[in-house]
Amino acid sequence: MKKILIVDDDADIRLAISTLLEGKYELKEASSRSEAMETLKTFVPDLVVLDVMMEENDSGFNLAREIKDDDRLKNIKILMTTNIDNEMNMDFKKEAGDPDWLPVDDYIVKPVEAKSFLPKIEKLI
Predict the structure, then answer these.
(1) Amino acid 47: pLDDT
(2) Number of domains within the chain
(3) What is the 3-state secondary structure (H, E, C) of 69-92?
(4) Which residues pair with 47 in a beta bridge?
(5) For the residues 9-17, what does the mean pLDDT come to?
(6) pLDDT tops 90 at residue 24
(7) Tell me, what DSSP letter sits at residue 7?
(8) Distance CA 72, CA 107 (A)
(9) In CATH, what number is assigned to the domain containing residue 88?
(10) For a Cys staple, 82 with which of 11, 32, 52, 69, CB 3.0–4.6 Å?
(11) CB neighbours (10 Å) of residue 102?
């Protein structure tokens, strides 16, 4: 069974994502960048679903870089979840995949809807 780590500081969002994925994947959750890094010591997922803004506005960006810079973790796919597109007028379509600034494999804008979210998960896994 493929493994997914869900990283988001909002418990309701973690629950919503877990509900969509339960039974199909082995799931773990983390509520912060530091908790995610601790989880990654023993749980190496196939995919990380990662929020951009957690403890700090750039926590998700930093975690994505940490994952991609770690030889043991660098092959993990990252799906970033964000509403930063709307809040800060950033074009994630253009930036996603940039190895220095935004080393993620794809992103999805919140609120996460099953019809667009599940195909992205299946494509990445």
Answers:
(1) 98
(2) 1
(3) HCCCCCCCEEEEEECHHHHHCCCH
(4) 4, 77
(5) 94
(6) yes
(7) E
(8) 23
(9) 3.40.50.2300
(10) 52
(11) 20
